[in-house]
Amino acid sequence: MEKFDVIVVGAGLSGLAAALTLSGKGVEVLVLERGDYPGAKNVTGGRLYVNPVREFFPDLWPDAPLERFIVREGFALMAKERSVTLEYSGSELGNEPPQSYSVLRARFDRWLAEQAESRGAMLLTKVRVDDVIRENGGVAGVIAGGDELRANVVIACDGVLSLIPEKAGLRSPGSPHDYAVGIKEVIALDTGVINDRFGLERNEGAARLFAGEVTRGHFGGGFLYTNRDSISLGIVIGIGGLVGRASPPDIPALLDAFKARPEIAPLIRGGATVEYAAHAIPEGGYRALGKLYGNGILVAGDAAGLALNMGVTVRGMEYALASGCLAARAVLKAREAGNFRTETLSLYGRLLEESFVLRDFKSFQETPAVLANPRFTNHYPELIGAVMKDVYAVPAGPKARLYETIRKHMTLKEMWSVFKDLKAVSKI
Fold it and tell me: What is the value of pTM for the model shown?
């Protein structure tokens, strides 16, 4: 019966980061991927913040197939008939080395897998893991396609709906409120056209997030990222808000309506959809994290719930890379000790605590509850849009003063509600 030092389940960013860290160090690593190739079934908006993980893989970035470095940030509140957009383009965003890039996962993940394989990791695709092998109160391998594959340690990196942590007894099934569903298109456009439409030069990129009417007031939002010769466009909507509804929204129809908006349609005009995908996304934050280690098992990336919605930024890829690397470092220490039990693998938890990963999650642990306030998605876009409509309106007669214009929309009751919402936002 075949036995490996480490079996990594899932060839996404966390799994490949683990394999990359372990390979070349005398460790026999097997990576099992359900998709046709690494990145085939991975869906993400498409933005990687490199700064937090730059030192984890210092030799990786010069040759990595990254798309554009982001120099323009945008956030838009969309009402039914208008929108208000805040754009930021600080000069520091263009400084070397750039803090973030747009990424196409199908391209990036395949390249990362090649790096791991070149260092000695073994990768098998089109393999579905059905269960874990449990022995002596711990995990001793996995069952894949009816075959038993044994290992000293299993690292579960098989995505947000991973069943491995449940089968290993590390967590219970999550709540619908801990997840969202994302749907995304990659729209091919000429590089010069993208640069002209977004005011970019060379390999500069733009990122925009949208809230409000894009999800018909449901928790969630839209996103747009410019790649070298394409645009990644999509929406994310919370699953918890859809449970029990007699007529939940048609999410593909919401995406079509988003594409038809006057703020979006001119940006993608003439483009051809070359990729269409949908996927579940972790949304629960710190309070939804389960136990991330046990006897013979570690959990990383989306399988661990390590994606974080911070309101104006949504992050996940750097948490996946970091957690995969830290899981591998814990395995290397356990290998030195010859002990793969919980007490030794708990080093992984300490490494996460000391890193930016769990420090971020603790800092923003109140964010999911704050963002769940329906006023942020169905009230404020309309309110702010109405105020701005009157601010910029020039009537035939005399124009009202700015204070009077704003006060028309802001009753004392409304002002009190805004105050309470701002107080809640202070927790973010």
Answer: 0.94
